[in-house]
Amino acid sequence: MNKFQLDNKFKKIGYIISIGTFIFMIIRKFIENSDEIKPVLHGVLLLGLLLVSLSKDKFEDEFLDSLRSQSYRIAFILVIIYSLIQPIINYTVGIILNQDEEMKAFGYFQILFFMLIVQLMVFWQLKKMNN
User: Fold this and answer.
1) Alpha carbons 8 and 59: distance in angstroms, whole number
2) Under 8 Å CB-to-CB from 60, ≥6 apart: which residues?
3) Which of 22, 24, 34, 67 could anchor a disulfide with 126, C-beta 3.0 to 4.6 Å?
4) For residue 101, what pLDDT is reported?
């Protein structure tokens, strides 16, 4: 895993990219709702989150490496379970509320975004619990 990690300075760059893109997405929603720029913003947001996820902490050791590996495994499993169950829940709720609901799968952005967010939150929580 250490071979794929980036230097700590990339974490700050990732935060700037992610927060800036998120703010731009919100502003764009109110000003102009063009669908051409949406995939680009999604890609940039995922890139920023990936930079944060792959960047080392200031003091990286084997224990943090182990916690990081655990967080990737947990995120992977939770996102698979979520992506299998959530469409069924949406469909069932739609039927209960008498709406014409179709079984819809998630797009790549939703799955990757959720996986990166879950990985980061699990990693932060594991670090917090073990300090």
Assistant:
1) 9
2) 2, 5
3) 67
4) 65
| Domain shared by 66 and 130, yes or no | yes
Tell me which of 58, 90, 107 is where a domain ends: 58
Residue count of the chain:
131
76 and 98 both lie in a single domain: yes
**Coil, helix or strand for 37?**
coil
Looking at 58, 80, 100, the residue that finishes a domain is 58
Which residues of the chain have a pLDDT value below 70?
A: 1-3, 101-103
In this prediction, residue 93 carries a pLDDT of 82
With a CB cutoff of 8 Å and minimum separation 6, the contacts of 25 are: 41, 45
The model's pTM:
0.81
Q: How far apart are CA 127 and CA 121, in angstroms?
A: 10
Residue 71 contacts residue 117 (beta carbons within 8 Å):
no
- CA dihedral 124→63→73→129, nearest 10 degrees, is -40
